[in-house]
Amino acid sequence: MAAVALSGNLANKIIPKHGALSIIYIKSASYSTDGKPNIAAYKRGTGGRSSFNGIVATVFGCTGFVGRYVCNKLGKIGTQMILPYRSDFYDANRLKVAGDLGQVLFTPFDIRDEESIAKAVKYSNVVINLVGRDYETKNFSYTDVHVDGPRRIARICREMGVERFIHLSYLNAERHPQPLVLRKPSMYKISKYLGECAVREEFPTATIFRASDIYGSEDRFIRSLATGWRSHGNLVPVYKNGMETIKQPVYVSDVAQGIVNAARDPDTRCQVYQAIGPKRYLLADLIDWFYKLMRKDRAGYRRYDMKYDPIFFSLRVAAANMLSPAYPFGGLHWEGLEKESTTDRPEKGVPTLEDLGVTLTPMEDQVPWELKPFRAYQYYLDKLGEFPQPPPPNAL
């Protein structure tokens, strides 16, 4: 028999001086009797990671570059997340801290397994597809990842009664792209375009984001240019010397915020948004600025040479693919070079992230931080003003 000792005025009020002892049961609202988390105990609204805002979101591609930012922002506003993963669970395990206990759930899936997809979206009212691939492998082609996969996910979401579907695509996707570096049209661009069409066919009210080159921590835009595989002394091989390519890169946190804002706004159904940065730059000016930030040239900021050398490209790409068939070293592969050489052409009249209430981040504020690990003399304690900051590139 267990006994509870009470003292003071509380004991005089609860325990009578004469008669039988009354037993009082105090039930906590924070737990349920069957041992499962009681969602009703969470604070309602967007009060933080320990709240519940009513959105249950499944994020495909949660372990990817953009997915990690999206999960963090969803968890910050009290979203319950179901995160499908493939391969090793520990790739997704770090996302557990994006929400409170019981708010982040994991489930294994395969993009070709319809049963696992249905299980992942069964209880969700919002599904976000961020699955993408920059290069093909022996197991997954561009068509598998960008066309068949989104079609399958969108169809199952419609059949399971999901309310909202958000799909991340590519800004320069088109059915008949003109090859630049490649000898034939880019399958990456074609598959991204066909993926949009497939999503619209299966889920007509889907929201689609067309993103430009996305930069940020662990990106494949700045870091593919900053790696030693792309430079040879002061020579940086670029298509048409970088003078005919115009880029409008966007910060990954801005893209994630736009996706989260769209998930919370029902008026974004059937809409297409362009995820582009606030300014346009020549690729040559961007690369020159990147290398000046990294090298800190004491002799004066001379401009780095950017020349298109097909032989150099071919040898470097062949070496990268031969040494690492599964993953191209430095992100150096032909489709990546084709994407890098493509000019961003946003369509007029199509809404952007700013229409979703996102304040865009200028590259001048973020890129120096992103390139800090690549900086020469980064362990050298320089004196104030010894290495002046190079001026940012001129916007077009």
UniProtKB/TrEMBL annotation:
<comment type="subunit">
    <text>Complex I is composed of 45 different subunits. This a component of the hydrophobic protein fraction. Interacts with BLOC1S1. Interacts with SLC2A4. Interacts with CLOCK. Interacts with RAB5IF.</text>
</comment>
<comment type="similarity">
    <text>Belongs to the complex I NDUFA9 subunit family.</text>
</comment>
<dbReference type="Pfam" id="PF01370">
    <property type="entry name" value="Epimerase"/>
</dbReference>
<dbReference type="InterPro" id="IPR051207">
    <property type="entry name" value="ComplexI_NDUFA9_subunit"/>
</dbReference>
<dbReference type="GO" id="GO:0005739">
    <property type="term" value="C:mitochondrion"/>
</dbReference>
<dbReference type="InterPro" id="IPR036291">
    <property type="entry name" value="NAD(P)-bd_dom_sf"/>
</dbReference>
<dbReference type="InterPro" id="IPR001509">
    <property type="entry name" value="Epimerase_deHydtase"/>
</dbReference>
<dbReference type="GO" id="GO:0044877">
    <property type="term" value="F:protein-containing complex binding"/>
</dbReference>
<protein>
    <recommendedName>
        <fullName>NADH dehydrogenase [ubiquinone] 1 alpha subcomplex subunit 9, mitochondrial</fullName>
    </recommendedName>
</protein>
<keyword id="KW-0830">Ubiquinone</keyword>
<feature type="domain" description="NAD-dependent epimerase/dehydratase">
    <location>
        <begin position="58"/>
        <end position="268"/>
    </location>
</feature>
